Amino acid sequence: MSLDAPERLRTGCEHPPSRPEASVFAEVPPDPENSRTSEAGAGWVCGRPGTFTELLPPRVTDFSWRRPRVLWRSRNDVIARWFGDPSNAIRRRCVAALRERGTPAAFTVHRAEPEFSFVLLGDTGEGDKSQYAVVPPLLHAAGDTDFMVVASDVIYPTGDAGQYPDKFFRPYKDYPGPIFAVPGNHDWYDGLRGFLHVFCGLDADCAPPPWRGPLSFVPRLLWRRSGEVDGPVLEEARERFRGGAGQRSLQPGPYWAVDTPALRVIGIDTGITGALDRDQGRWLREVSGGPKPKLLVTGKPLYVDDDHRPGTIEGGGTVDEIVQDPAHHYVAAIGGDIHNYQRYPRKTADGRTIQYIVSGGGGAFMHATHTIPRTRVVDEGDFRCYPLRGDSLSRYSKLYGRWLRLPKLFELTPEEATAAVEHRLGIKPGRGYKDPAPSRRARFVAALLGVPRGERRRPRALRFPVHKLPQRFRSEFADWDDPPFFKSFLRLDVTESELRVRCYAATGCGDHETAPPCEDDFVIPLR
């Protein structure tokens, strides 16, 4: 899909340069004004506030993981990890109900257009300023796309159906196309009942099967049952906010495929703990067959934080084995769950390159990137992340300084934080800063807040809880309501010969709403 000059000006990304036919993918220089070139491009300097506050509902419910009620309603995550995840059994029952209703076994939506575009963002539904700040830049940079995909965690914190009006229908009321989604672990905290009702039109029995074993009475007693779904209220919200003819659609199930002449987009449901049931694994192998290029969308990323998480399949095998099989012709795998942007271009055994991407910056609190070690799964020079590690450390240092009431000790400027990260990781200077040695205070704060030392993953000294503790505690240090938010979304443009992927930033600054910074831009040949 070619872009004319006004479109390039609006999106802020230029056409890719000519590429040799032999290249596996081509990097495209991002827009000059972004986080890699200046502090203003990162959102540290805002000339005017964002207009997204005008989109907020009259009353924004602020949830905190420290509230006992929220912790109690999120207990299914702990139960699933301690006593076994019943998501597979629940999903099988729901899929059987969908097939009885007449849904095709292939769970596939067909599109005849060889050229199309779509927008993808993950972990959206926090319902506060950080989610709504993504909306204006998304509409300016990707409002003309054919459809949207939400990759994981449509509703925070506990997947309740009653929160869809303000956390799904309202924020995306002006997006003109249909929206597909794959559920995340938070959507499963109510047994996926709200998700199935909104996206699949199914009001299913989401009760888990009985656990077995000597302690089976514990999960049976503690498991949170699905709440009632108020169908009329949800339908009223749908009609009010997303009632346009082009906006309404039903997806085949919690996992699905969108098949086009040039590319097949496949979405999978990874439940609470990241596993696929046997039936879904069989379906994934079948829908992955054939020579057509394919892109996977998953609730759990396969590569993240310099770690390989292949995704188990009940009965044997992994998701990544299917992705890497040369007979399946995957070109990329995009996952949510982790709330930032990361990209790992991985070479396969047969010489192909698969782009493994994390896109979870669609609205929820930010997961740190400064805790990512110097990458070993790919060369550090090929790795991309947003926010940059230095910006991430600077943001967390300000949060801890405020929370501990020690700003003079903790707070690091972006330049100080970048120097400390470069010193500890041994990576190249960023953003054109001069390269002075970081102060002792900066080195101390970097070590305390989790920046690894060189190739070592386990630092020797005490570290504050930044990334390793469960998010119900970590989010208290990672959530804020003023720019820069460091949120992001992807625009993907498909032609018969190539797939172009652009990562746009949502800083919350008014300066960036109509022309959001382009943080990453690359092209994958499809032939």
From TrEMBL:
* Annotated SUPFAM superfamilies: Metallo-dependent phosphatases
Q: Which residues form the Calcineurin-like phosphoesterase domain?
A: 117-214
Q: Which stretches are tagged as biased composition: Basic and acidic residues? A: 1-18
From the UniProt entry, list the residue stretches annotated as the region Disordered: 1-43
GO function terms (MF aspect): hydrolase activity
InterPro entries documented for this protein:
Calcineurin-like_PHP, Metallo-depent_PP-like
Q: Which PANTHER family match?
A: CALCINEURIN-LIKE METALLO-PHOSPHOESTERASE SUPERFAMILY PROTEIN
Q: What is this protein called?
A: Metallophosphoesterase
